[in-house]
Amino acid sequence: MTHIYTYDSTLRDGEQCEGISLSLEDKLKIVERLDAFGIDFIEGGFPASNPKDIAFFKRVSEMPLQHAKVAAFGNTCKKGVAAADDPGLADLLASQAPVVTIVGKTWDEQVTRALQTTLDENLRMISDSVAHLKAAGRTVVFDAEHFFDGFSANADYAMQCIRAAHEAGADSIDLCETNGGKLPFQVEEAVSRVVGAFPDQQFGIHCHNDSGCAVANTLAAVRAGVTQVQGTCNGVGERVGNTDLLTVIADLELKMGMEAVGSHKLQELTEVSHFISEVTGSPVPAHYPYVGSSAFAHKGGLHASAIARFPEAYEHTDPANVGNSSRMVVSELAGKASLLQKAKSLGLDLEAAGVDVQAVLDDIKAREASGYTYEMADASLALLMMRHMGLYKPAFALESFRVIVDDREDTGALAKGAESDAVIKIRVGDQRFVATGEGVGPVGALDAALREAISESYPEVAGFDLVDYKVRLPDESQGTGALTRVTITMEDGFGTYGTVSVSENVIEASWNALVESVEYGLIRKERAMKIAKEAFGG
Questions:
Q1: CB 7 within 8 A of CB 43
Q2: Concatenated DSSP letters for 382-431?
Q3: Is this prediction's pTM over 0.85?
Q4: Pairing of strands 327-328, 139-145
Q5: How confident is the model over 429-474, as pLDDT tens digits?
Q6: Three-class DSSP category at 380
C-alpha cells in the first residue's frame, strides 16, 4: 500500500484564517493530538517572528512526540544576501526544528514585480538556501509558491526553479496552488509534467480552496505522482481556506486505497476534527464531509426506509470508518420507517406500544407546519412520542409565572445592565412551591426560579446545565407579530439534548422549551438509575 505523507499547516496557514488566534497552549495541544493521530509533519510557524512562536519551538522540542516531526517555516534568503548570512535562515536553524520549510517564488512576474529582482537571482536564492539548510543537517521542504500560475505563464522558468531546489538537495518539493484558482485537470497535467521530469524527487502539493477545488486538486496531484499532501484540519485558512487535510486523509484511505494514518487511526477522524474545532473556536459545519453531524443523517422517508435494508444505498462508506454514525432526522418529510427507527434510537418502541404511527407523523407534520422543527430537538420529539404512547407524566404543574425586566439607567438606546427577576408558582404532586430567580435575561431568571422551585423534589436538576439558547422567526415577514421559535440545548452529564417550542410570545416559547428540557433530563436520569439497578442488582 502506497504511503502518502501528511503535512499539517493548521498552526501556521490555518491561524491566518480570519477569527482564529491560537495561544501557545492551544498550539501545543494541537501538536499533541495530531501526533497521536499519526500526522507525519506539523508546521509550527515562523521562528523568531513573535515571542509566542519562539516559546512554541522551545516547548515543542521538549515534548515526547511519538510520530510527528515539527517543521519551522520561513522564506529563502533575501536578494543579494548569502544564505549563510541571512538572519531569517539563521532563525530557522536556531529553532532546532528537525524539518525546515522554506517558500520561494516560481512565477516569473512574482519575482520581477513582488521581489523586484532578476530571475537568475531568484534561482540563486532558492539553490543557496536549500543547500545551506541541508548542510546544517535539516530535512528541507521547498514550497514552490504560485507554482501553477507560474507554470501557466512561463513553464520553462517554473521548471528551472524546481530544478534549482532539486539539485540543491531538497527532500520534498511541494507545489503550491497559492491562489486557489486552478481546476483538477489543470493541476494533474502540470504535476505529471514535473514528476516526469524529476523521477527521483519527492513532490508534495499545497492547495487553497478559492474555487472550491482544494481537496479535488490535492487528490488529482496524488494521482499524478505526489507523495506528500499539505493542508489544515477542517480546511481553515486565509480567504476561503486551505485543503481540508482530514477529508483528504479519508479519501486517500477509503477511496484510493492508499495509507495516510492507517485504518485504525482513521476511526478517530471525527473526534480529531471536533477537537481542533473546539481549540480553534471554528465550528465544524453540520454538512461537512465525513465528520459533520449531518454527514450521515437521513431525513427523506424513502432514504430512511432504504437505509434500514441496504445502508450502502445512501451512505458512501460505513460511518464507523471515520468515527461518525448514522442518524435519522424526523421532519414533515419523514416516512413511517424513519420514524420507527428514530423512536428506537430514543429508547421508544412505537410498534410494541400499539401506537398509530401515522397519527404521530400527522402530529409532527402539523407542528412543523406551524413553525416547529425537530431536527435538533430530539428531547421534544421523544416527549411528543411518549404522549402518543401514554407514557408521558408531567414532573410538575405550572400555576403561574411572572417575569420582570428592570433597567434603571436613563440612557435610552445605549442603556446597559438590565436585570431580570422571575417568580414561579408550581405544584409537584400535592405540594405547592413558590420560588424566585434572578438572571441577566428573562430566560436565565426563569431557569433559576424553576430549579429553585423543584430542587427539593428533584435534586438532580442541579446537574443540568443550559448550554445554548436560540431564538428564530420562522416567518420574518410578520415582524414583531411573528411566531417565535425557541430552541434550548441542555447538558445533563450523559450528553447534550435539544428541545423546541413555538409561540407568538418569546417568553412563553422559552418557558415551554425550558420545561421540556428539564422534564426530559429527569427522564434520562430515571432511565440511567433503572439500568444501573438492573446491572448491579437491587
A1: yes
A2: HHHHHHHHT----S-EEEEEEEEEE-----GGG----EEEEEEEEEETTE
A3: no
A4: unpaired
A5: 999 999 999 988 888 999 999 999 999 999 999 999 998 888 887 6
A6: helix
